[in-house]
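Reopening: structure tokens for the adenosine-5'-triphosphate complex, inputs below.
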Amino acid sequence: MKTIACYSMKGGVGKTASAVNLAWSAAQAGYKTLLIDLDPQGASSFYFRVKSKKKSWEQAFFEAHKNLLKHIKSADYENLDVLPAHFSFRNFDLVLEENKDSEKSLYKVLKGFKKQYDLVILDCPPTISNLSQSIFVASDLILVPVIPTTLSERTLVQLYQYFTQRELPQEKITPYFSMVQKQKHLHAETMQRLFKEYPQFLPTHIPFSADVEKMGEHRMPLGEFASGKPVFTAYHDLWRNLRDKLFPAS
Ligand SMILES: Nc1ncnc2c1ncn2[C@@H]1O[C@H](COP(=O)(O)OP(=O)(O)OP(=O)(O)O)[C@@H](O)[C@H]1O
Ligand SMILES: [Mg+2]
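Re-run output (same inputs, fresh job):
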């Protein structure tokens, strides 16, 4: 089982869009996939039309793997399950602060899914916190959407600095360009420069497209209503980049 975190401390950069579309592509390719919505905003739960039970359960989340099992819902697609977010997940940081060995908390509960799933995808909230620290430890790969602008570039630099300070494995950081508008000089120039500076950028970029916004109207991944569109192909290629990294033999 492999774990991908769709992560950036910057908000609105495409974490949820990537989590949803990659989960769909992985499931279509036959990988048993679990999408965990860690963001109390619950956007990926919304796209997959699943809701959490009413009762708050942020405390129970990190206690035992079996506590998570009863919250898992099957999505409308084969091989794909979703653990929906709950608004109480906004308290994850407080819960983790009280946990001994909190860095490993997420890793420990996810380990329990090894036999059931090939892939776990985490849709992460835009913070850098105790929760993100546990995400960095639990994930094999941290997929970071980067809009090719100055501020997003800065956020990526800060993430690398954070990993250096905390002695976390930098090779887990896997950036890709998101919401690309190549006709903008700044986007084209930034991409060219960053591809050289950071060879770890995935080759596939995701173009800016109104179809991604339409996912909210349809409440479906792109593959279900825009499979002929370039943005769908881009997400599908992004999945292939990740598959080749995480499952090289397949
Ligand atoms: N490639 C794209 N082209 C155009 N719009 C996009 C694209 N990707 C995402 N969006 C839109 O941008 C907004 C933010 O995207 P998304 O929710 O995926 O970002 P996020 O990083 O998960 O945000 P948050 O930090 O709030 O969780 C949404 O309205 C989404 O529809
Ligand atoms: Mg999001």
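Residues 2-246 form a domain with the Rossmann fold fold (CATH 3.40.50.300). The chain has twelve helices and seven strands. Marking as resolved unless the reporter disagrees.
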